[in-house]
Specification:
Blueprint (H helix, E strand, L loop, with lengths): L1 H36 L4 H23 L5 H15 L3 H19 L20 H12 L20 H13 L12 H17 L7 E5 L2 H18 L6 E5 L5 H9 L2 E5 L10 H6 L5 E7 L11 H11 L3 E5 L6 H4 L16 E6 L12 E5 L2 H5 L3 E3 L7 E3 L8 H38 L5 E2 L7 E5 L6 H9 L5 E3 L4 E5 L9 H18 L7 H11 L3 H15 L17
The structure holds pyridoxal-5'-phosphate (PLP) and 2-acetamido-2-deoxy-beta-D-glucopyranose.
The site of pyridoxal-5'-phosphate (PLP) has 13 residues, from helix 8.
Amino acid sequence: MALSAMDVYLHLLVEKATEASDYIKSVEYSFNSYFALRGFQPHQIFLSTIAFTLFVVWLYRFFFMHELSLWERFKLVSFRTIRRLPYVGPQIQREVDKALEKMAGSLFKLPPGMKYVNGLPQSGMSEDQVMRAIKGYHQLGHVDWKKGNVSGTVYSGQPELTQLCTKVYGEFAWSNPLHPDVFPGVRKMEAEVVAMTLKMFNGGPNACGTMTSGGTESILMACLAYRNMAKERGVTLPEIVAPFSVHAAFDKAAHYFGMRIIHVRMDPKTWKVNVKAMRRSITSSTCMLVGSAPQFPHGIIDPIADIAELGKRYGIPVHVDSCLGGFLLPFMKKAGFDLAPYDFSLDGVTSISCDTHKYGFAPKGSSVILYSDKKYRHSQYFVQPNWPGGVYATSTMAGSRAGAIVAACWATMMNIGEDGYVESTRKIVKAARYIAKELRKIDGIFVFGDPEVSVVAFGSEVFDVYRVSNALTARGWNLNSLQFPSSIHLCCTLCHTMPGVTDRFLNDVKNAVADALANPMAKATGQGAIYGMAQSVPDRKIIADIAWGYLDCVFDTKRGDQDGPVNGMHH
Ligand SMILES: *Cc1c(COP(=O)(O)O)cnc(C)c1O
Ligand SMILES: *[C@@H]1O[C@H](CO)[C@@H](O)[C@H](O)[C@H]1NC(C)=O
């Protein structure tokens, strides 16, 4: 019985195969006769085949080989078309111009009597004159970060450290790491900063790294290295697969280096990246996976071990962005806090970015990029062997660099030492956890996920949280506004560990929330309204245009020296 069923099946199969081959033959025949009948010459067929192939390649590249997805490009073109329409277009432009004008008028106003310098003074100023002028510039700032009123921004600010760095800067003011033969001391210090940081992150015997000018450059370098490696194995458009919450420096890297970035969605409860979704985003073009330890917006640590495992399984490099937490996480265990592994002790982790100029307390302008193996570092190097100026070789973006910044960073790390960092970590993490715990007790707001380190973000499902942000600004606080979804965060630094600061903050939040709850449907005004509105504009190019206007204002020396109050904008 079974045998005969098999027979029937086989018979059917042969029949279908014959039919199919007959069909192919008939198509072949009509194809050939079509070209033969119309008298096509073989060279015509040959050339049109090439033309057709090129067209298909073009189509393929158009659809799939662009840094922006088809949908993103479609939106761009649609909105661009709308802005070119008669009547509608000029009206939108007028609104944008009005917003720009309003912003330009309110930003960076100078106090009465102060003018911009728009050319060199004919004869140089004396030291006294310069110092007097400098005092005036210093007094333009009215935000008191020393009292802990500002989120992040200044991580230490201890006067003794300022003095030490200033002295060390003086010693190395003219040095340039581009010339290690002239400044061997700077070379030694730079190598030692990298070595000390590697030790903090459990780098193996082949681990290595370089110093950079900041977190963004560290991230750019890792992305460049992985892009170059992917290109070498034939990938046309390398893809970065990163959490939605990842730092914008990765988007910048994609933009600068001709890569595509895939943002992976977050778990809506924990605000950690969804690793399953990350696995599904992997393609043959993926050149790196990213996890943050922790991410900037909500201070949450991604599941680094799972991402590392994924990278190992698919043979893809894994970058851990520890720019923010780089000088907290390595000391958390010693400071008495539990922590899942996040560094080179995990097999799949191939690079880590770590900012010495955040919780390392070094002056701005220094960071470290670390690799588990020298082959990755080689891919970030640039060498031009044929330059008439000599064989030109640099490890990072810059050519000449400030050796004094390297020296100040080295001095800071040596001055604080492991015990010092354990102590600052203990104080900062304690302050942040206290704030998170107390914020959770306030009705009407919620804390994002379980912030383990130094940043605490909160939002509201009851009222517009930017109203609380406005109220806190009015009370002298300078916090970070976040979007998608609307929220605000406080990034705790040493400034927030001074007695009374956390309670002063919590008290002000409590009062602001109570005011907001009294009238939950009210809309935010002013700065808060701008953030709320900016999220709801579907044409993101409009927001980009306004941001361009903001950047233009930063370099403006033509307007704003009319009389009026100083009104700076701080981030
Ligand atoms: C600050 C930060 C960066 C970038 O650092 P910069 O020094 O501002 O260039 C990158 N990632 C995270 C998580 C950060 O907090
Ligand atoms: C800092 O914040 C407090 C409110 O907690 C406020 O009273 C004080 O004026 C603020 N300082 C400055 C310089 O804005």
